[in-house]
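WP5 quarterly update. Target: GntR family transcriptional regulator. Source organism: Nonomuraea turkmeniaca. Length: 213 aa.
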Amino acid sequence: MQTDVACSRLRELILDGVYPPGARLTEMEAAATLEMSRTPVREALRMLAADGLVRPAGRGVVVVALEEADLNEAYQVRAALEALTAELAAARQREGRIAPADLRTLHDVATRTATATAEGRLADAVRLNRRFHRTIAELAGNTMALQALERIWDQIQVSTLHSLMPPSRPAHVSGQHDELLAVITDGRHEAAAAIARAHVLDTRSTAHKEEHR
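Structure tokens (predicted):
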């Protein structure tokens, strides 16, 4: 469906920073960029507004960034949801409900994320980090939690694009991923929930300190 294609492509442009927070985008400009008619683009912009990535402004929209208080709330919700998905994934692993190939995929993404982070390849690291957390959410088998996380991840990514920089402690970040990976692999659901929650809140705390240096 053209509307879904338009929404997906515009979302990618926003998340990649081509249209950063504060950027104004009209239907005509978006349609020209996507080489599509204005009707699916109009519907796509409405969908992105419903997801909180843009807000109506005149004949177009403006890309939205969360204010600091709202960003803190987004991280709190993200921490709760990622604790849930990590717990569910570990429980499913303990019950033998996760295919070995799917678990290997999670290990592979973790390794690639660590490598990109250590080498300072920021764009790759951001993309792979999200894939790592999304893979855990997929292994949890809870569609509603995954959908909610997708929206929160989008809003956080757009809102923190301006302050993105290589982690000051890349080994620490990778170590947290390794801890989470280990307890999920072992099927330790309570530990998985605790580590996932702590990891997300630590990510916010570290980013907050960097922003206010």
